[in-house]
């Protein structure tokens, strides 16, 4: 029965194990990018832009409007009295136009030439979509920084957990020696208790480190949409000096293109427009109003023609509109230059940081070598009764701290290299050296 239960539990856990995986930094960045809710904006922006451009294109379609009108006028056109009397003498009844008039009709207008207005409107709409896409990409890029913080935070905790395990092993080794000495009467119970307490303290620190690591791992899993149990150790990150591909620059360039497109749109609004039109209505009076004075019946009426229109109202605000666009374009160019300047400052700062951590790592290795020798000497002295347990613990703690310093500086070096690459949106990484060296 117990075997069946065990097999059943294994079957239940297999799907969860298949979901859990160890991932690299590049994979975390890619998964977080694909899983982040903001990614949905790309399709929505594209759809909105396509609909807008399609609607603008329909400006070339015939514009049709229907109308129905009923009016009551205070006065209407009449014949001169002498002419009316003369027609009356001839037996013609001149009723005159009615003051109540009616018409039901249709107006059709077809644009022939619009001065490039529709073309420029479509160009502006497409560039507005590009700006929105670039803004989304810029916002998504900020996720990289959050992933880096989680990833390198986990990496540092992994290193500390490994060193904590080494510390526990070292403490246990010395504890075994002291217990053997206690059995032979060459050590005191208090010495054994000191080491036991120190080992328990190390175990307690391991519990805290593991809890912190699990918290960061849960957040990384939430970002990526995958159940992650471990991360791969980066083999150093080579800083590339390739061109700057940051998404912010694409955003600035798209915004500047949009300003130029809007300036062309201002020019298009000033050009005359040519259109063909047709009007038709059924009602009273018709175009032949003289006949309508004698015959008050409804008739069909129609008219076709070509119309040239030129709205010069845009001239009133043209100067200010161009000045506003130039000012906005200048502001964007200033923001772009500021961004590049700050990038250069950060590059200098991070290059200094990389050099600093490289030097610290070299010094850390020398310190560890010396601390190891001092600790081994202290172990020998304790065995011969020259020093007490507290002196040994001090040396063990100092050696362990020097190892922690080395791991911390190595992780920070990798982090600084990654930040340097992020300054230029560089994704490729190649091995240079391992933290385990």
What can you see in these coordinates?
This protein has helices at residues 2-19, 25-35, 41-57, 81-89, 117-183, 189-224, 247-270, 289-294, 314-383, 389-422, and strands at residues 21-23, 63-72, 100-113, 228-231, 273-284, 299-309. It has 437 residues and is α+β, with helices and mostly antiparallel strands. It has a 4-stranded antiparallel sheet with strand order 2-3-5-6, with no helix packed on it. Helix 5 (117-183) runs antiparallel to helix 6, helix 7 (247-270) runs antiparallel to helix 9 and helix 9 (314-383) packs antiparallel against helix 10 (389-422). The longest helix is centred in the C-terminal third of the chain and has 70 residues, at 314-383. The protein starts with a helix and ends in a 15-residue tail after the last helix.
């Amino acid at each position: 029965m117990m075997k069946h239960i065990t097999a059943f539990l294994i079957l239940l856990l297999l799907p969860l194990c298949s979901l859990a995986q160890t991932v690299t930094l590049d994979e975390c960045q890619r998964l977080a990018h694909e899983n982040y809710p903001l990614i949905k904006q790309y399709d929505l922006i594209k759809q909105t832009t396509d609909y807008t451009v399609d609607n603008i294109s329909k400006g070339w379609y015939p514009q049709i409007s229907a109308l129905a009108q009923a009016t009551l006028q205070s006065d209407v056109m009449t014949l001169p009295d002498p002419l009316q009397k003369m027609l009356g003498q001839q037996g013609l009844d001149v009723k005159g136009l009615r003051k109540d008039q009616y018409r039901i009709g249709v107006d059709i207008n077809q644009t022939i030439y619009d001065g490039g207005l529709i073309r420029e409107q479509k160009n502006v709409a497409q560039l507005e979509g590009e700006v929105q896409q670039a803004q989304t990409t810029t916002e998504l890029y900020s996720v990289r920084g959050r992933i880096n913080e989680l990833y390198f935070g986990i990496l540092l905790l992994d290193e500390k957990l490994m060193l904590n395990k080494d510390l526990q092993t070292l403490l246990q080794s010395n504890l075994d020696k002291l217990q053997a000495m206690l059995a032979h009467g060459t050590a005191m119970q208090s010495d054994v208790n000191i080491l036991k307490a120190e080992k328990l303290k190390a175990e307690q620190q391991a519990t805290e480190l593991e809890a912190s690591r699990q918290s960061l791992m849960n957040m990384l899993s939430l970002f990526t949409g995958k159940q992650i149990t471990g991360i791969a150790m980066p083999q150093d990150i080579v800083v590339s000096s390739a061109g700057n591909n940051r998404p912010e620059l694409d955003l600035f360039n798209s915004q500047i293109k949009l300003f130029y497109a809007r300036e062309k749109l201002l020019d298009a609004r000033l050009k005359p427009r040519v259109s063909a039109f047709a009007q038709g209505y059924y009602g009273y009076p018709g175009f032949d109003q003289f006949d309508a004075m004698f015959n008050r019946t409804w008739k069909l009426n129609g008219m076709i023609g070509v119309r040239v229109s030129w709205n010069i109202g845009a001239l009133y605000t043209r100067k200010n509109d161009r000045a506003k666009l130039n000012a906005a374009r200048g502001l964007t160019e200033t923001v772009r230059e500021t961004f590049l300047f700050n990038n250069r400052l950060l590059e200098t700062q991070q290059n200094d940081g990389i050099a600093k951590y490289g030097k610290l790592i070299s010094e850390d290795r020398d310190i560890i070598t010396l601390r190891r020798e001092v600790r081994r000497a202290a172990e020998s002295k304790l065995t011969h009764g020259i020093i007490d347990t507290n002196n040994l613990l001090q040396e063990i703690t100092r050696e362990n701290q020097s190892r922690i310093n080395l791991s911390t500086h190595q992780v920070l070096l990798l982090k600084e290299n990654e930040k340097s690459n992020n300054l230029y949106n560089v994704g490729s990484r190649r091995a240079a050296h391992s933290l385990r060296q």
